[in-house]
Write a structure and sequence with these properties.
155 residues, mainly alpha, two-stranded antiparallel sheet, 46% helix, 10% strand
């Protein structure tokens, strides 16, 4: 018989290295252990003391409002103009791209975009879909889908 390390109730373990009688006791013991590791530190924005549950938590702000205010102040305070990484349009927030389209376009290199445009022009010029598929290394079904989409946009 073993005694639970948290609640001290006697229990029988299936093997020798079990120290808690249940998962509930194990999780409560962990919570107590982490609480004992708590540390005090000032909020990064307002300076109010906050208690981090443990060093791993990484909490640096009192709440999400302090974080938002800190982020806004950091954005406005550095004096640099922010530009969209894709199209170069000015940004008025801490974002990297001005729109979802720019974010999507940034995933592709300029060569990919040029290749796609060349494929579209080949499809529009009437080149056989099987030849377009072979030329660009895509399936004929994909070329057919793109051709149908181009036709519907033209109408």
């Amino acid at each position: 018989m073993n005694a639970c390390a948290y609640c001290e109730v006697e229990f029988s373990a299936g093997h020798g290295n079990v120290i808690y009688c249940s998962s509930v006791c194990r999780s409560r013991a962990r919570r107590v252990r982490l609480k004992n590791q708590a540390s005090e530190m000032p909020c990064k924005y307002c300076g109010k003391q906050l208690t981090r549950a443990h060093e791993i938590s990484g909490a640096m702000f009192c709440d999400r409002f302090c974080y938002a205010d800190w982020e806004r102040a950091a954005f406005e305070g550095d004096g640099r103009a922010r530009l969209c990484k894709s199209c170069g349009a000015p940004l008025n927030t801490g974002k990297v791209f001005c729109s979802a389209r720019c974010a999507s376009n940034s995933r592709f290199s300029l060569e990919d975009i040029a290749r796609k445009n060349q494929m579209l022009s080949d499809i529009l010029s009437g080149l056989q879909q099987s030849k377009v598929a072979l030329k660009y290394g895509v399936s004929r079904q994909r070329v057919s889908q793109i051709a149908k989409r181009l036709q519907s946009q033209a109408e």
